[in-house]
Structure formats: C-alpha cells, structure tokens
Amino acid sequence: MRTKTFFDLLLFKTEANLRTEVSRYYLNYLWWVIEPVLTMGVFYIVFGIFMNRGTDHFVGFLLAGLTFWNWFMRSVNNASSSIMGGQGLMQQVAIPKVFFPLEVVLRDCFKLLFSLSLLLLFLIFYPTPVSLTWFALPILMAVQFLLVLGSATLFAALVPFVPDLKFIIATVLHLMFFGSGVFFDIDKMVLPEHLFIIYLNPMAGLLKAYRQILLYDTWPDWFYLVKVFVFALLLLAFSLWLIFRYDHIYPRVCQQ
Prior knowledge:
Blueprint (H helix, E strand, L loop, with lengths): L2 H21 L7 H19 L8 H22 L2 H4 L1 H6 L6 H27 L11 H22 L6 H15 L6 H4 L5 H4 L3 H14 L6 H24 L4 H6 L1
C-alpha cells in the first residue's frame, strides 16, 4: 500500500469512527465536552470541597493529573484490541497492521483536545500563574504522544497472540494509575529511598512535569524528559519492528 493511500485511509477511518461514536447519542459531539466537565465536577466536589489533601492548589493538581493520565490509559486500553477488532478490514485490504493502533491513538488524541481546552480554561481563572512555562506544554505532550504510541502499538501487536493479555494490561494500568501520583504528590508521600522506583514509571515523571509548568511556574526536569523521550523512542521502534515482523500472520491469528 502506498504511503499516501495509507494516510488518506487512516484519516478517513479516524473521522468515520469519531462520527459513528457520537451518532449513538442524542447530544452527539457535546458529550466530548460534557463528559470531562462532569468528571472534573465530581472530583472538584469530592476532593476540592469535602476533602483536604494538604496539597497546594489541589483541584488544579488533580485535574491536570487526570487529564493526561486518562489520555495514556484510554489510548493504551483501546488500542490493545485494535488489531483483533480490525479483522474485517484486514481480510478485505492488504493494509499494514500498524494502521489499527495508530487510528485509535489519533482518535483519542483528537478527543483529548476537548479535555485539554477545558483544563487550560479552568487554570486561567484558577489562582495559579499563567506563565512562560506553559510554552513547554507542546514538548511534554510530544514526549507523551511517543510513549502512548509505543505502548499502544506494543500491546496491540501482542494481544492477538495472547488474548488473555488484555486482563494483565488492565491490571498494569491500575497499578500505574496509583503509582503515577494522580491523587497525591509523590515527593511528599513516598519515602525518599523509594522515589527512584516510582519514577521508573514514566507517567509519574510526566504528570509531575505537567503540574510544574501549569501550576507552579517551574520548568520541568529536562534531563528526566530526555530519558523518557529516549525510552519512548526505543519502545516505539521495538513495537514497530514487532508489528511489522508479524504483519502477514495477524489475519490468520485473528480468525482463530
């Protein structure tokens, strides 16, 4: 398949799936705004009003963590079964199987823009500074995009061979969720001798970096981000090698 045809089909499939998703509901595209607003509202009431977590600007702290964690979690979770779900299309068209996780990641990135817009709008009126450090946001998102794409592609490549892996993925994502500091400040809650282990989880460091630039007018740890960037590139390279290595096998495996 030619490169231009591949990307034309990718954009068409992404748009078609987005349209199909929203056509099931009466409010259509409004749900992409309503859902994050409701989620943010629930956490604001529970954690911002009824609970005192002892963290500065906790509501913004929590919403920033949730926004970028949900991007990672949903993309990886949704993409893990994408090749198996694309069985019908791969039987009709000789298409590189990387198409399927990539389409899921692009679709979730598009939906992220709505949550991100709401988060930034909230932070503009929140009692935290809007500063030059916000210009680092695209860099952090680019690093996370590589991490998301590499993780999503890896699991998408493996699940057709071991379908039960989906349950392990869900467990790993839960473990990463609680170990990423979505609800708490890792540097304050975790013993110093364990911090190294916690920051082996790249999402823990990325969430900290997002909060530094958006809430605390502080530049992130660039050296740490470079390490996450290199790790994400290596993960993506391995995932692409794996999925192209078994590209011709997936149609047969998914039929079993």
